[in-house]
Specification:
By secondary structure, the protein is mainly beta. Helices cover 0% and strands 26% of the residues. The chain has no helices and 7 strands. It has strands at 4-11, 14-15, 51-52, 81-86, 94-97, 100-104, 111-112. A hairpin with a 6-residue loop joins strand 6 (100-104) and strand 7 (111-112). The radius of gyration is 14 Å and the shape is globular. It starts with a strand and ends with a strand. The mean pLDDT is 93.
């Protein structure tokens, strides 16, 4: 599985689940939607998803908590955010689970699950 990073809020020692850019999940409605749901509420492959990065330096600086400035000098995010990672392989298009895939943008500084 590819190594991926995402900055999110924490809930009980795990990423907080929800439908905002600061949660584990996607936004399906409105101006800032990550992916569009069909009329039945289903989402489909290759139509969008949750953003991830290959490393800390490619996360948006406002998503990296300021307490991590020693690792990423541009960090400007609120300290209630945590940087989570998953996997250990190369950041390239790959299956993450039966129903999830990583699609990497070109250049490979951003991906979508």
């Amino acid at each position: 599985m590819p190594l991926m990073y995402r900055s999110m809020l924490e809930n009980g020692g795990k990423p907080a689940v929800g439908s905002s850019k600061k949660h584990l999940g996607v936004i399906t409605l409105g101006k800032y939607a990550d992916i569009e749901a069909d009329t039945a509420g289903w989402v489909h492959p290759l139509t969008g998803g949750m953003s991830v990065s290959p490393d800390l330096q490619n996360l948006p600086q406002h998503r990296v908590p300021m307490r991590l400035k020693r690792l990423f000098s541009a960090a400007s995010g609120k300290n209630n955010l945590y940087v989570w990672c998953l996997g250990s392989g190369d950041f390239s298009d790959a299956e993450i689970s039966n129903n999830l895939r990583l699609r990497v943008d070109k250049p490979a500084e951003h991906g979508i699950v």
